[in-house]
Amino acid sequence: MKKLQELLHATARLKLFKPFAAVFETLEGIIFGPTEITAGAPHVVDNIEIKRYMTVAIIALLPSTISGIVFFGWRVLLMIIASYVAGGIVEVAFALIRKREIEEGFLVTGLIFPLILPPTAPIWVVVVGSAVGVFFGKEVFGGTGRNIFNPALVGRLFVTIAFPQIMSASWQKPFSDAITTATPLASYKSAGELTGLMDLLMGSVAGSIGEVFRIGIIAGGIFLMLTKVANWRIPVSYLASVALFSWIGNLIAPDLVAPPLFQLLAGGLLFGAMFMATDPVTSPFNHESKFIFGGLCGLVTVVIRSFSGYTEGVMFSIIFMNALTPLIDHFVLKVKYRTAK
Amino acid sequence: MTIKDLKKTESFNAFMNGLWRDHPIFSLILGICSALAVSNRVENALAMGAGVTFVLLATALIISSLRNLVPMRVRIITYMITIASFVIIVDKFLKAYFPTISESIGPYVGLIITNCIIMGRAEAFYIQNKLGKSVMDALGNGLGYTFTLTVIAVVRELLGFGTILGFTVMPEGFTPWVVMAMAPGAFFVLALFIWISRTITGMESK
């Protein structure tokens, strides 16, 4: 990380880039936060702010977004716009009524929401989901920073329950128009068929818009963790726990539980673990609780994937653990700062 | 008697309290469980509302007339017996004349016995007040409950089935919102209803 910053400094100092010094400064500010030390009060100890958080998150989401547009066509862009407009209206309406600033948090929610939808989902579903997600997921709790559940996931959960037919039969293979119901996880569940790992990595399988190009997700996730916008503890413990439990499960009941490598790559696990479980608002703030949070997310995911009627459990597991977040923090603090009696 | 005079009478006040000011659902948050369960279709909501109103009226009638005869120690059991008898009448009536509705809200009719609104009103009002006032209170509460249930049911049936009272309203190609037909949908709509009503009555700001 330090080296990267030095590299950026060195490049900025080159004569060739002198005219662009301001650009580099902004870039550095966005990625690493301001480095200047304030001369007088007020001193800000933390050099991060919401705007920078959100900008970094959006940069990390770019590979998934672009690959989504490339794979599934320009319709995806339309869905993203629809999501921004619908959620934005709710956000602005609340900001006006409450006489507050419009909060930047929505920039990420509005982008993540279409990325976790099936590629052929109708535009009005995007509108309903985005509005419901922002409204019931965030604004009724008081806006950014006060929500219990991840707003994008609330929207996704709502449309999943409200329109089951649309949501389960809107999948599409990249670069083709054929609508299919068979995502890798679904075909494993119905026919015990394992999709090749390379296909999963490169994204040539059916799935939600943002989840198929997995190399891009991994790159974006690593970027998020390096810039410390996402804490590495949650994705690592989440993925490790999925690997562990699916390995154990696969040894005991190979018909029900898919093998670990397949589970790690299939479905929305990578996307969820990198971009949604790490949501700083709805995940625990203690280091120890982050491990517990990720670990339990993994367990719930494997259980839902293997033993329930749903093929994918990432969404449910994160929403479920969101609800337990305050509880985990509470008990970890109690154990950590136990006073001797 | 002019309207102005009417507004001053105790019975009218009792009626209006039940209907709006101390509305059981959005003001006191009572009787929520049945409101969630039977508000998926308008006909169910109307039947349930009528049932509850009838039981409330009958309870008010009986408890209020017996209020000086019932010893305080056994008053709760008196409410229970009274309410239970009338609930059974409602149940049998629905079974005989509206078998389809009875089938879809069956268990919840029996649960009117435990509906907090009726027990609450009996304990808070009918045991202490005169017959006329009690009956007006029962009418107000019953209509208030029915009104709420119907509003919620209109939204839920419209979105969940695309119909109102069984008639198709939504255009062809409308996709039903399955969530609205299930209990979670009721939570969303009820919460919105409580929020909006409280904003209108200015209760939130207090």
Task: Throw out a few tags for this protein.
A: 341 residues, mainly alpha, two-stranded antiparallel sheet, 16 helices, 64% helix, 1% strand, B: 206 residues, 10 helices, 2% strand, globular
Would you kindly provide a brief summary of this structure?
The complex is a heterodimer of chains A (341) and B (206). Chain A is an all-alpha fold and 341 residues long.
Q: Spatial order of the strands in the main sheet of chain B?
A: 1-2
The total count of strands of chain A amounts to: 2
Strand percentage of chain B lies at under 5%
Q: In which range does the helix fraction of chain A lie?
A: 55-70%
CATH class category name of chain A: Mainly Alpha
Number of helical stretches of at least 4 residues of chain B: 10
Could you walk me through the main structural features you see in this protein, from its secondary elements to its overall organization?
The complex is a heterodimer of chains A (about 350) and B (about 210). With about 350 residues, chain A is an all-alpha fold. Chain A has one domain: Ammonium transporter fold (Orthogonal Bundle), CATH 1.10.3430. Chain A is about 65% helix and about 0% strand. Chain A has helices spanning about 1-15, 20-30, 50-70, 75-100, 105-115, 125-135, 150-160, 165-170, 185-190, 195-200, 215-225, 235-250, 260-265, 270-275, 285-305, 315-335; strands spanning about 170, 180. Chain A has a two-stranded antiparallel sheet. In chain A, helix 4 (about 75-100) runs parallel beside helix 6 (about 125-135), helix 12 packs parallel to helix 15 (about 285-305) and helix 15 packs antiparallel against helix 16. The longest helix of chain A has 24 residues, at about 75-100. With about 210 residues, chain B is mostly helical. Chain B has a domain at about 10-150. In chain B, about 70% of the residues lie in helices and about 0% in strands. Chain B has ten helices and two strands; from the N terminus they run ααααααααββαα. Chain B has helices spanning about 5-10, 10-20, 30-40, 40-65, 75-95, 100-110, 115-125, 130-160, 180, 185-200, and strands spanning about 165, 165-170. Chain B has a two-stranded antiparallel sheet. In chain B, helix 4 (about 40-65) packs antiparallel against helix 8 and helix 7 (about 115-125) runs antiparallel to helix 8 (about 130-160). At the A-B interface, helix 7 and helix 8 of A face helix 9 and helix 10 of B.
